[in-house]
Specification:
The protein is 35% helix and 17% strand. The chain is α/β, with parallel strands linked by helices and 218 residues long. The chain has one domain: Rossmann fold, CATH 3.40.50.12140. Strands 2-1-3-4-7-6-5 form a seven-stranded mixed β-sheet. Strand 1, helix 2 and strand 2 form a beta-alpha-beta unit.
C-alpha cells in the first residue's frame, strides 16, 4: 500500500491546502438547479472509515462540501456528486470544473435515481466533444483492491437496466467516473437510512474503496 500513499502525495501537491500531516478527504460537490446534492451526508464518512480500516491510506473521515463556483474545489483531489433531480452549471462553473479535471482532479458521480438526464446535459457544457463511455470489466478500477469481475454492483434497484460504470477522459486519464443504475453510495450511508443488508453495504464500501484507490494511483 505504500505505493498508493506515494502516488497520493504526487497528486495532492497540485492542490491547495494539503500537508503531509493531514490526510485524504472527499468533498461533496454542491451544485445549483434544485437537485438534492446534500442527501445522505453519512455516506462519505463511512466510506473513508472503511478505507482507513482496510488500507494504510491516511484519511479524514468528515463530511465536507464545496461550491463549484468557488476555488474551494482545488483543496480536494476527489469530488463526489450525487442526487435525484436537476443540475444547472453556469458557464463559469463548467469552465471551472473543466480546469479542475484537466489539472488532475477526479470527479465521481453516483446517480441516486433521476439525475441522469440533467447530468448528461450539464457535462456537455464541460466537455462538449465527449460522450460517456462504458468502462470494460477488465478496467483496473474493478480490481485494484477488491474484485468486481462484473463491473459495478447493483446496490439499489431503480429500473430493470443493468448497472453501468461510465467514464470521461483527459489525455487518456479517467477524470470522471459515473455509476448509473448502480447507486453504491446509498450503501455507504448509515444502516438505518436505507436498511440495506450487511452484505450489500460491505459490497458497496469495497467498491467505493476501489474508486478512491484507482483515482489516487492512475
Amino acid at each position: 500500500m505504500q505505493i498508493i500513499y506515494s502516488s497520493l502525495l504526487v497528486l495532492l501537491i497540485f492542490f491547495n491546502g494539503y500537508t503531509q500531516q493531514s490526510g485524504f478527504q472527499v468533498a461533496r460537490l454542491k451544485y445549483n438547479g434544485g437537485g438534492d446534492w446534500y442527501n445522505d451526508p453519512s455516506a462519505e464518512v463511512n466510506l473513508l472509515k472503511f478505507v482507513r480500516n482496510n488500507t494504510n491510506l491516511k484519511v479524514i473521515p468528515e463530511y465536507k462540501f464545496v461550491d463549484l463556483s468557488t476555488d474551494d474545489i482545488y483543496n480536494y483531489p476527489f469530488l463526489f456528486m450525487t442526487g435525484h433531480g436537476n443540475i444547472n452549471f453556469t458557464k463559469q462553473e463548467a469552465e471551472r470544473l473543466k480546469k479542475y479535471l484537466e489539472q488532475g482532479g477526479f470527479l465521481y458521480i453516483d446517480d441516486d435515481y433521476g439525475l441522469d438526464a440533467a447530468l448528461r446535459r450539464e457535462i456537455k457544457k464541460v466537455f462538449p466533444a465527449q460522450e460517456f463511455v462504458e468502462l470494460p470489466y477488465k478496467h483496473p478500477i474493478y480490481n485494484i483492491l477488491f474484485p468486481f469481475p462484473a463491473g459495478p454492483p447493483k446496490t439499489h434497484k431503480h429500473d430493470d437496466s443493468p448497472a453501468q460504470g461510465l467514464g470521461m477522459f483527459v489525455n487518456n486519464r479517467l477524470c470522471i467516473y459515473y455509476t448509473f443504475e448502480s447507486n453504491p453510495s446509498d450503501g455507504w450511508a448509515d444502516v438505518e437510512v436505507h436498511h440495506d443488508p450487511e452484505e450489500k453495504r460491505i459490497e458497496s464500501l469495497k467498491f467505493g474503496a476501489n474508486i478512491i484507490m484507482f483515482a489516487l494511483t492512475q
